[in-house]
Design brief:
Order of helices and strands: EHEEEHHHHHHHH
Number of strands: 4
Radius of gyration: 17 Å
CATH architecture of the largest domain: Up-down Bundle
Number of helices: 9
Strand order of the largest sheet: 2-1-3-4
Distance between the termini: 29 Å
Number of domains: 2
Shape: globular
Helix content: 55-70%
């Protein structure tokens, strides 16, 4: 049975951009599982699957509905144990939780300051209204005030990625010789940046850029399919 992945898009359904959804896209390909992606606009999410979740990603696998990217990865690991492992054992699960915290607490903050106005521009009018209201309430600033600091956020990005850069001095992937779910966590953040702004705003010879290119090439280049 084909898994259904509900993800996030703007006015163009062919450009899903959520970092958390990209983690799941890569995890499903890693496991070699057949799936259908159904991108949703922000305001369509609460009306889908009888209001199962207010956020994406979530998946339907037969009768099962599972939300949250990390919980989805654990579900795939538990229910498809004969396919390639996403974690490489319980130690890998714990390490991926650390990477998740680093990505969401450090990298996402910088990426959101760079991409916020670009995301708003990608949305249909109804979703623009929702996005502006929810983000301005969350940030305590207007989108325009956040956008005024975009250049400073771009300048701050290399330092935010220094822990990843350090690791890549010793191995090609966060997972070691080959990628694991921990790679897809940080890849999702930079894929979010690339799709929404057109660039990851790093030099081509940066070790993080080279790692990102390796991730884009995985699974017949699925990461390159959305520009």
């Amino acid at each position: 049975m084909t898994i259904t992945l509900y993800s996030l898009c703007g006015a163009d359904a062919a450009r899903p951009f959520s970092p958390h959804c990209w983690k799941v896209v890569m995890a499903l390909h890693h496991k070699g599982l057949a799936f259908e992606e159904r991108p949703l606009a922000f305001t369509a999410i609460p009306t889908t699957e009888n209001g199962f979740s207010k956020t994406v990603p979530f998946i339907r696998d037969g009768q099962e509905l599972i939300s949250d990217s990390f919980r989805i990865a654990q579900y795939l690991e538990e229910h498809y144990p004969d396919e390639p492992s996403l974690f490489g054992g319980q130690g890998g699960v714990a390490a991926a939780r650390f990477v998740e915290g680093y990505s969401q607490q450090v990298v996402h903050g910088v990426v959101s300051r760079i991409a916020l106005s670009d995301i708003h521009a990608m949305l249909a009018p109804t979703d623009q209204d929702y996005f502006r209201k929810s983000r301005e309430e969350r940030l305590g600033r207007t989108l325009e005030e956040v956008a005024a600091g975009r250049d400073a956020a771009i300048a701050a990005l290399p330092a935010a990625l220094q822990p990843l850069r350090h690791m890549l001095g010793h191995q090609p992937f966060v997972g070691g010789a080959t990628p694991l779910f921990a790679d897809y966590i940080v890849f999702g953040a930079l894929q979010w940046l690339k799709i929404t702004t057109g660039s990851i705003h790093l030099p081509a010879d940066d070790p993080v850029s080279r790692w990102f290119d390796r991730c884009l090439d995985l699974y017949e280049g699925v990461g390159r399919a959305v520009a």
